[in-house]
Amino acid sequence: MEIRNVKAFLAVAASHSFSQAAQQLGYSQSAITVQIQNLESELGVRLFERLNNQVSLTQAGKNFMFYAHELINVVTSATAGAKKASQISGILRIGSVESITTSLLPDILLAFHKHYPAVQTVVYTTGKDSLTDMLVKNNVDLFFTLDRRKTDPQFKNKLLQKQPIVFVGPPNQRFSAAKLTLAQIVQWPFILTEAGESYRYELDRLLAGEGLHIQPILEIGNAETIIHLVKRGMGYSFLPFFAVKNALQHQSIQQLPVIFPDLQIWAQLVLHKDKWITPEMAAFIDLVQGYLEPAT
């Protein structure tokens, strides 16, 4: 399989145009057409539909997309390795949920850049469902998430560290009881992440099991914004301990003494099971596993 044919396929798929792909790659349009035809002949499937001057992927083309990216990544990494075996370089595409991006990831990225300055790192921050879709489409190499321990045959999960989730509130409030129950706090004003996102989902599930419900006064995805609003006395929240650790140490917020079950949330890395582990991916995974305490 010729790599130039695979590159032509990816260029046409991205631009939805044979002429634009030809311009991008520096070929004539007829050369791009021949390259696609050769690739289709080799694979034994039709990769594109060409109707009404529009180009779109067939289902076979969509299925081949992931592996086409993998082929290019392997060739790029092999070429870079052959040129300079002692220097890890290339592009590392990391996805992450917002709470990890703002709290855990900065120190990890700083350490990774210090060890591997030639690696170009790109970080995408969004929700877990979007990250999963990006992983399937090979738009990210791996992603960080907070979730329960679970398995999916399509992915490989590397559990990194168990993360406690805590209730927090403004710094100066005093409580009449040494311990608070869920029933006591559900009517308080809460600022929470969007419904369905990892620890918010676990909180809603926990409350539903007790016949309780929290109606937040504000839903917002940015943990730093939530912490800032809690500091200002707007309300209470439920966040991973690592996200609020610094604020607790500076006593700008306080942890609430709420009695509730352990929710079993882990920080973890997720990879596609068919993903070839590039040198930069392997280096990043090793660094992260050494940086964070192992999950138990």
Automatic annotation (TrEMBL):
The keyword Disulfide bond does not apply. It comes from the Bacteria. Keywords: DNA-binding, Transcription, Transcription regulation. Residues 1-58 form the HTH lysR-type domain. The keyword Repressor does not apply. One of its GO terms (molecular function) is DNA-binding transcription factor activity. Belongs to the LysR transcriptional regulatory family. This is Transcriptional regulator, LysR family. The lineage of its organism: Bacteria, Bacillati, Bacillota, Bacilli, Lactobacillales.
